[in-house]
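the two lines:
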Amino acid sequence: MSEATIIKDAICSFCGCLCDDIIVEVEGGKVQRARHACPLGSSKIMGHGRIESPMIRKDGELVESSFQEAYDRSAQILLQANKPLMYGWASTSCEAAEKGILLAEEVGAVIDSTATVCHGPSVIGIEEKGLPGATLGQVKNRADTIIFWGCNPAEAHPRHFRRYSSNSIGRFTPQGREGRKIIVVDVRATRTSRNADKFVRIDPGCDYEVISALRMLVAGKGDILPERVGGVLKADLAELAAMLKAARFGALFFGLGLTHSRGRYKNIDNALSLVAELNQHTKFVVLPMRGHYNVGGIGQTLAWSSGYPMSVDFTRGMPYFNPGETAACDLLARKDTDAALIIAADAASNFPRATAEALANIPVIQIDPYENPTTLLSDVVIPCAIAGVEVEGTAYRMDGLALRLRKMVDSSLPSDEEILMGILQSVRKQRQMMANEGA
Amino acid sequence: MIIRGGIVYDPSNGIFGEEMDLFIDRGKMVEEARGEEIDASGLLVMPGGVDAHAHIAGKKVNTGRIMRPDDSRLGTEPRNGVCRPSTGYTVPNCYAMGYRYARMGYTTAFEAATPILEARHTHEELQEIPIIDKGALTLFGNNWQVMECVRDKDLSKLAAYVAWGLRSARGYGVKIVNPGGGESWGFGTNVKSVNDPVPNFDVTPAEIIRGLAQANELLHLPHSIHLHFNNLGKPGNYTTAIETLDLLKDIKPSRMRQVVHVAHMQFSAYGGTGWRDFESKAPVIADYFNSHNHATMDMGQLLFGSATTMTADAPLEYGNARLTHNKWSNHDIELEESSGVVPMIYSRKMLVNAVQWAVGLELALLVDDPWKVLMTTDHPNGSPFVNYPEVVTLLMSKPKRDAEMASMHEQLQKRTGLGEIQRELDWADIAIMTRAAPARILGLPDKGHLGPGADADITIYNLKPEELDTSQDHSLVKKAISTAMYTIKGGVVVSKDGKILCTPPGRAFWVDAAVPQADTDRLMPDLQEKFAKYYSIQLSNYAVQDAYLPHANVIRAGLSIEPLQEVA
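prediction for all of em together
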């Protein structure tokens, strides 16, 4: 096994770009090198500190256990809870998500993804207005005008520029960056704005007003605008609107700066409306910059299984969806959940403080390859093989394209799928025992 | 298993309402068998329903679900010991699709439009749909490689690409949607006729359609090309329909079937110069089908109420969104297609919608040969598939049609001749249009009939055809065919009186067509260049892996093998 093997066209399972041109060198059962990957992806593929054994909290301390003991304890927690929350799913495969949805149905849980703290408002915006989008290759081949709004791909999606957007070269974009106009809208200068032909710096929390102003300018109603909107001079906005209308093919990429600033889903609703209206003048598409590599996939999987892409409540036996009521943070803020299973996400680090505190006060099951702040408040910790490195599976790129993740190296640990099935089997067994005792 | 005493309609085998016993062994129809008996005395028995055109899986269906939580709230059913939960009306979740088809007596359904690049997603959803057998048609009409082969008049390379594309997509047949229009939409325009050149590619829609039809026949594919016309949905588009059909009349079919199947003909049989003088041209289209034998169609019937329009015809969806001011999703697929989704409500008081409703019925009633017309609603574009019983009863009952028309816009009688049509279809016609003909048109020899060797997919309806007057008692008919008394799939009772008893996984059909290695060798450099320069993924990550078809049924076709057994 010590002979070096090369895996070509491997898929990086770090961010929503899902770069699929990685050349991985494996030797001695370990990844030695991940060529073409960015530093973020490379660090994921190369691996770092892992949880080595399942653990169950006893008398306040996490104590090593067998996998079966961990499954049984997890099943017990889920069965004893009235309204368990199963949260995360952004960094595992759709196959694992399918097993998770089945488990959520059987125990009557609420299932939610990390979208709730990133692009959840985008989903609600799409429910209002629809999503006029495209695959990333369409942008690469055609876009001559690209806006990055409230996102910083230079640091968060490092290969986005070269592979898909500003600097990519395609059939109708042979000059690459030279032939394109790049616009960045943000509240501060970033490494992304340094790449811009036009940087529009807006006042924090004023995205909605600025988009509205652009819509008026695009519709030829700029004369009633005030001289300054959201900290931007009207003349600047007029120039920007003219650039958008002059595009042959325009693309708007947006990030958390738009979804999680004041206005939230209304910002997205407004941005989607702007793009739809620009199509009366030219061709324009819009794409959310999804963060975790498969946060799109859990949304797709939930949608085809339950009809809804996030925040699905199975406690009534049938899917129920009402963001504001059934999202993870809503439940925790109201203390309306009495147990949680956190998988492939770090809730403790990313949730608002009050909700993270609520999490600390209920039994928590963690399934993750890595120790993180969520581990500290977990009652059961189950380490898994890493999807996309140690396990095959499906992931959806930020544009909704499904790709099959490759397995690069072996792992002695079970996959997320196997763990979830282990818990589900234990749930079924304990239910059967309870039924027998009842009889 | 033995089914005793049913009144059997099995048109492929020349059986039209004969009382007979049916025998099943190991999932197939046989001459003689033993075992469990089902008493079907006097009841209507048909092969399991086959839906040759519905949008049931893939990116645009899921986009419909995601943008329409309002729709997912309809039709909700909790999970039980057998079934996963159901949601949705026009865009049901995967489980509801399987259960609802099965309850209605359908056992096979084909997804109508999948881009190769996104076929993996389609198969993820198809494998989640329980019970029914399925397949997916693959989109080729706006594909760069196709257009370049057509431009270069390189038919053998085109055939090699079609075979490669079907294999990559694990696809069943060649779907063409608004050829050239999807590519034009890449820069926000559309083609306006079959002779309108496609920007940047130096081909016309007419050339694309003919090229793909020739390649389809060269490959002996089980299904013909499956065509969504240019100008679909527009007033006056019946001329485009006739012009397009004329392009194909000299092409010789490689099997005993049509050369072209026209998708949802209803949306392409309109007269008028605009919405104000919009009218039915169904009689002209029906005359064409009556006097030519190279084409078949499915109705694409429109019914009133909620629908979700979804199609690879992206400029059409943009038009729908502009027209209705409704929410709009669009999805361009690099090098291959474009697509869109727009929710819709059809109203009987809206004259245009009422005319559309009439056009679908006129087509089915005016085409003499039921083997040429499939009953569909282009689910969920015209209406969701659960409303097929409404369409069937409209076709079988003139009084029902008259009653419906009386509640519609008063101008309707002037825009359609439907009110004058006396024809009422009978059970033989219905069995052909929902079973025998879709199986023959798709090229599925083991489906749509009950002869020895056929798949034991059978529907028993709680209805006595010899006692029921389908013209007068249409509401009883509708009730009976909405919920089959028994649906048998592969020899197993999957649904009884609307209750799902078990949920075996259905099989996925796809076509593997062989081509000479020399043609593939000429093709591959083109593809390698496209992936190196234009696609956003690597060639090696493109094709659908077998992991996504756990119950695959591969049908062989192609140039280098003997022609397959011809369909009955």
